[in-house]
Amino acid sequence: MPLFRSKSQRNLTKDDSTWSLKNLVDRVRKKNNSNLDDLMIIGIDFGTTYSGAAWATVADIEVDGVNVITSWPDTGAQEGKAPTELFYEHGKTMWGYEIPQEADPVRWFKLLLLKDEDQPSEIKGHEYLVKARNMLADEGKSTVDAIADYLHLLWGHVLKTIIKARGKNVVEALCFHVVITVPAIWKNYARDAMLEAAQKAGITATRRAGPTTISFAPEPEAAALASICERAENLAEGDVFVICDAGGGTVDLISYKVESTDPVALQEAVVGSGGLCGGIFIDQEFQRICKARLGRDWSSLSQTGISDIMKGEWENGIKRHFKPVTSSKAFIVKLPGEVFRGSGGIGLNDSSKKPIIKDGRIHFSSEDIEQTFTKSFNEIAALLDAQVHSAKKSNLTVKGIILVGGLGCSPYLQDYLKAKYKRKKIDVLQTDGMKPRTAICRGAVYKGLIGALNLLEHKSPVTITSTLSRLSLGIATEVPFDEDVHSESDKYWDDVEDCYYVSGVMNWYIKKSQSVQKDKPLRKSFWWTFESRHEYEKFVHNAKEVILQCDHKKPPKMENYLVTKFCEIKISLAKSFEQLDDYDSPGGKRVKKIDFDIEMVPSGASVEFSVYEGDRKIGTSGMGSIIDD
């Protein structure tokens, strides 16, 4: 086997010039090879319960900002998002608002991308997930197929919307860069599956203007870009904000410190966190109290009847606007007529127990509604407490909590958190209207713009300069045996080097919770040795290096069961055995040797590993996320 030896490491840095947005774009446009005007950035927020999209050219961002899609098929209302639901019938696929009320759609299928072992226990056996899994099996569809079906229909609507606004000829001349947001707690395999689904959906289909590129952004990072940067005039250096992205399924938290305000530069302050305590769990609680009140008559409801209550009366009514009251005000839910024809014998008027039913309507008290929010809000508060505490341990003081996401629009959530953090003098900020609900897809567009400017070797005026790694990343190497460090049982004699060696020694590039500076590559040098042509040719046939990961707080010094594969780098070696450099080993053997470097390039919440022989790149991993939990 070729030996894999560690030599040294060095840091590489790039120029750090910055300009204001307008000056920056002016300078970029003066360059003959700049094609910013030919670029359309499209952000897609594919959510557990609702999905949204936004788009912009650089000119849009300079003048009017980001265009958010608010008009959807089969709904006359202006909505920031469409339901993430599918319905298959007679070979036809329906999505979002066009699904008939009486239909029983596939829901929550996004969560099926996670393997069973990565599904939290409280969600694994949920009826929606079980039903989604069974429905897709009946249709002969995989999870990737279902997501591709949804993205295909969403993408078609996005294109129609953009063409309607700009004209077909203009749009066809623009190159597309699509940024899809993913939960911070997702593993890399789930993100890979999302890429496969996006490609199957036709998002990367051939276009006259050139290839469509896709990148990914963590949902809380996108939310931060939209939320903090749109408040740029109110920022001060040293401010620390927690972004609370409270969505349908997950609640993701990420904390940023403002490094500078002109340009806006943010660094992750403490390690982000997340949990499954979003809006769907509040919906579950409301459905539970409705079932408890109606008893057997709940089972007499059709899908239309359940939808009338859960979507019409609850999601689009009480839940969105609820704030606790101390008066006797009732929160009224109109019951479908079919419930009164059930076997339970419930009447139009029933005051035998609370909440009472009057004129075919349930009269819930404020306390009844409050209890549906209690568990989720307590869990959100616990996540926030942990962020605030971690910031304090790092000698940082949180100035504000910014609420985004569907549940982040809740006035009750804002009031609840305001009361909780009043003594700590932490502001709880919430934008009016659709902005909290559409923050992620808007932020995805900003993320795409930043990426475009970086490709043109200009520093964006809005940047996230560093993140905190949720993983330790490194490689397993062979090093000379040291009796003060290594176990006797691990050593073996190496004839080439004429000494004892130990294999499986971890060489960590970054460790968990370590700050990762954007665009500051770390390169380490190694070498392989080969004693024969046969050994070399066998290696060349399937040459690869494996990058390893560990999500424990203290990564081990030796490769063990805590260490798993992060990614694999396939290596292309063009030299023949005879062309390799000679190496006279300490053991008196002349062997062949290849010196090579493995470089880690951070980019926000992702990293890319590349292998170099001299100046020639001989392998690359592609981007991988460092925000997995």
Verbal overview:
The chain has about 625 residues and is an alpha+beta fold. The chain folds into three domains: about 5-10 and about 470-625, Substrate Binding Domain Of DNAk, Chain A, domain 1, CATH 2.60.34; about 20-215, Nucleotidyltransferase, domain 5 (2-Layer Sandwich), CATH 3.30.420; about 280-370. Helices cover about 30% and strands about 30% of the residues. The chain is built from 14 helices and 29 strands. The strands form six sheets. Strands 17-16-10-11-12-18-22 form a seven-stranded mixed sheet, sandwiched between helices. A hairpin with a 2-residue loop joins strand 14 (about 355-360) and strand 15 (about 360-365). Helix 8 crosses helix 13 and helix 9 packs antiparallel against helix 11. The protein is elongated and about 100 Å long. The protein starts with a strand and ends with a strand. The model is unreliable at about 5-25 (pLDDT under 50). Keywords: ATP-binding, Nucleotide-binding.
User: Alpha-carbon distance between the termini?
Assistant: 34 Å
Mean pLDDT level: 86
Shape: elongated
Number of alpha- plus pi-helical segments: 14
User: What oligomeric assembly is this protein in?
Assistant: single chain
Unreliable stretches:
6-24
Radius of gyration: 28 Å
Which CATH architecture of the largest domain would you pick?
2-Layer Sandwich
Helix content: 25-40%
Look at the helices and sheets and give the structural class. alpha+beta
Strands, count: 29
InterPro entries: ATPase_NBD, Hsp_70_fam
Pfam families: HSP70
GO molecular function: ATP binding; ATP-dependent protein folding chaperone
Keywords: ATP-binding, Nucleotide-binding
